[in-house]
Amino acid sequence: MKKGIHPKFYTDAKVICACGNTFITGSTKKVIRTDVCSACHPFFTGEQRIVDTAGQVERFMRKVERAEEIAKARKEREEEKAAEESQTES
Question: What are the residue ranges in the chain where pLDDT is below 50?
Answer without folding.
Answer: none
